[in-house]
Predict the structure.
Amino acid sequence: MITELALERVQFTCGHCWHEWSTDYDVQQYRDDQGGDWEYFSRDGVAVPSPYTPAGAVPCPRCGRRWVGRILARRRIPAAPGPADTPRENIVDAPGHRPERHGAPLLGASAHSQPQQSRPPMERAGAAATG
């Protein structure tokens, strides 16, 4: 049973070249039949390991080294059906219901403004010493 749905924006900072970037992940938390709690991560509809673990560390787009992410922001997605007063509409024509959704472009995991790039600490120290 799904216990929570969320969208999490994860920030990565490369410890080698100091490049910063962020990616959105869809996260499902669920409880299995034995009472165990699990998390399922996906990016652009593809299942991926948790970006918060070494197994899910993603490569830096600049230098290719892998780094574990940290949460930047989160939005919970209410699970249906919700309380009795939750707005909802009955789908009476399932095959014809909003057919434009099938052709809509994919909202990519990186389709948002990226973090401002800061200079590496060595570069900042050099600028301060000469400036």
User: Anything to note?
Assistant: The helical segments are 100-103, 121-130. Residues 1-79 form one domain. Residues 121-130 form the longest helix (10 residues). The first strand starts at residue 2 and ends at 13.
